[in-house]
Amino acid sequence: MDAFFSCAKARRVNFKKGDFIIEAGATANEFGILLEGSAHSIKWDASGKQIIITMVEKGGAIGVLLVASPGRVSPLTVQATTDTTVLMFPFNQLFAGCEKKCHHHEQLLQDYIKIIADKGIELHERINCLLEPTVRKKIMTYLTTISNEKNSRTFILPINRNIMAEYLNVERSALSRELSRMKNDGLIDYCKNRFKIL
Are residues 50 and 107 in the same domain? Predict the structure, then answer.
């Protein structure tokens, strides 16, 4: 593993909770993989309201789409939500030759392509959630996605209600009301962050 990191010129970078890993308007020549902690990619609408676009957990990727378009500025800010360690890879190392002719470069490129594909699917699912016309449908789409990821109808949500409201782009009070209605209607059951789709 050390040989891989050396060949790829990867480096570990630590961020404190609240630090910006990538800032909107900045360019990037590195992409990262979260080794520890978590982060959100966020935007602000015209009124200044924060919207969470994606949530990045351990093993998740940061900046993989941005670095593939040199000179393009980031439309998003990626912010650490806990103390976080990110393994950063210089994008140009993906295509650099290796004098040792090791297999690490080929593996890194294959991994990068898979990450791009996964990110595309993630963003597609995110758009589906945002395009739902009602709060109930947004909630159900999100909960179904988590259920499918966990392969269980019962699961623990990784976020609190405030973050869930930002992620779904709905008011916190509207989210709470609709969750209560969905529970009363027999669609879901929940206690704190433990949910079950009925």
Answer: yes
How many C-alpha atoms does 102 have within 13 Å on its Cβ side?
17
Q: How far is Cα 78 from Cα 39, in angstroms, rounded to an integer?
A: 7
Q: How many CB atoms lie within 10 A of CB 145?
A: 15
Amino acid at 56: V
CA distance 20 to 93: 24
Helix (H, G, I), strand (E, B) or coil at 53: strand
Report the C-alpha gap between 111 and 116 in whole angstroms: 9
The domain that holds 174 is classified in CATH as 1.10.10.10
Find the helix or strand (DSSP H, E) in which 50 lies: strand 50-56
Picking from 108, 90, 82, 63, the residue whose alpha carbon sits closest to that of residue 17 is 82
**Predicted pLDDT at 189:** 95
CB 90 within 8 A of CB 9: yes
Residue type, 109: L
Place of tokens 């040792």: 100
Q: Check whether residue 166 and residue 188 sit in a common domain.
A: yes
Per-run averaged pLDDT (10 residues), the chain, 198 residues: 68 96 92 94 85 90 88 92 94 70 70 82 82 93 91 92 91 95 95 93
The rounded Cα 80 to chain-centroid distance in angstroms is 11
